[in-house]
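pinging the channel bc i need a second pair of eyes. not urgent but kinda urgent?? the chain im working w is below, pasted from the shared doc
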Amino acid sequence: MPLVRIALRAGHAAAEQRAIADAVHQALVESIDIPPADRFQLISEHAAEQFIYDPSYLDIPRTERLVMLQITISFGRTAAQKRALYHRVAELLVERAGLRAEDVLINLVEVAKENWSFGLGVAQYRPE
């Protein structure tokens, strides 16, 4: 049930975008037990003037290859699972997409299960 938004600065090749998307999905499956078929991702590219970030916030040096991820999931994961997810995402993006771990920003948004409808106008996880 995750909805993943992947924001990149313009200029990433389609193959690199797919590698990023695949790595993020694999991390979700491995770290927080998302079913492999539960995949909903949006990739957006932004012109340099529309991709604004602090290059050294919290003393982490970032480059223009920064990838901003916003992952919306249902409530219920432990802090340890979330930390494992962050670690695995960064690890796979380094390995599969040639990114630096410093260039991976993740925002996890948790919502109640009744806030999802996967179609048919029904809240599949809270149908009552």
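so Strands lie at 3-9, 41-46, 67-74, 104-111. and The chain has a mean pLDDT of 94. — does that match what u expected or am i reading it wrong
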